[in-house]
Design goal:
alpha+beta, single chain, 275 residues, 5-stranded mixed beta sheet, 8 helices, binds zinc ion
């Protein structure tokens, strides 16, 4: 699923080609991706509106409209947001869930093969309560090791599950949780409240480092993720833990093991150097 680096990449790619352009026409092919908004209200609000700002919050792409509404897209497993300067091919049209035709014939498309992603439309109040339920952004300058430790304080849940909990920390999912715990040499199943201050400092540094490196590589493409220009990311070439079960640890050479013991999600670790 697109996590922080992937959604950030998408937003950075589409924003300069989208912001300031009026939406002339809207086509919504399927409404099952909509949350808290009807087809009629979404189409009526978007038509004639202008995207005045785009940013990322956690794993969501957030488009502020001139009307004050926010269009919020969470691509999840199979979704992508792409701006095209040409008509769509038949295949592209088939999976285009939301197509906004901008002035100048440019197209802003939400594509989702299996429609696992979601689209919300929120007003100011709705957005304020929505964003208030999400934890701090790890790449913000004020996200210190002390703030990270405070976010994990008092929970006995496995540290991997705790750092993927969007109410505690924004934007980290399964890929970067696996990578950061590997880099910090911490066993993902350890109760979060049993980590020492030094370990929390190491994990904080590892999370920031892996997110920044993944962002520099335009994210990780293991299946459907594409950047805002339709290209794959390249961080899959740098993964050390995620999706590497059975392969040798890059640090010690022991075989990495994959379990589903933590929250049913795929966890890959080196049992020798992650303690
Ligand atoms: Zn190892």
């Amino acid at each position: 699923m697109p996590e922080l680096p992937e959604v950030e990449t998408i937003v950075r790619d589409v924003a300069p080609r989208l912001v300031g352009r009026r939406i002339r026409a809207v086509r919504l092919a399927k409404s099952d991706v909509l949350r808290r908004v009807s087809r009629r209200r979404l189409v009526a609000t978007l038509t004639g509106n202008i995207v005045v700002h785009a940013h990322r919050r956690a794993k969501h792409a957030v488009f502020l409209l001139k009307s004050g509404h926010r269009l919020i897209v969470q691509p999840r497993m199979t979704g992508s947001l792409i701006v095209y300067d040409r008509p769509l091919t038949a295949d592209e049209t088939r999976y285009a869930v939301l197509t906004c035709t901008l002035v100048g014939r440019r197209l802003f498309v939400y594509r989702d093969v299996r429609r696992l992603g979601t689209i919300l439309l929120l007003d100011d109040r709705g957005w304020a309560s929505y964003t208030a339920r999400i934890g701090p952004e790890p790449l913000e300058p004020d996200f210190s090791a002390a703030r990270f430790a405070a976010a994990l304080r008092g929970t006995r849940t496995a540290v991997k599950k705790a750092i993927m909990d969007q109410r505690r920390l924004a934007g980290v999912g399964n890929i970067y949780a696996n990578e950061a715990l590997f880099d910090a040499r911490i066993d993902p199943s350890r109760p979060a409240n049993r980590l020492t201050t030094a370990e929390l400092g190491d994990l904080h540094a590892a999370i920031l480092d892996v997110l920044r490196r993944a962002l520099a590589a335009s994210g990780t493409t293991v299946r459907d993720y594409r950047t805002g220009t339709g290209e794959p990311g390249s961080f899959q070439l740098e993964l050390k833990a995620y999706d590497r079960g059975g392969q040798p640890c890059v640090r010690c050479g022991h075989r990495l093991v994959t379990t589903h013991a933590i929250d049913g999600r795929q966890t890959t670790l080196c049992a020798f150097c992650q303690r």
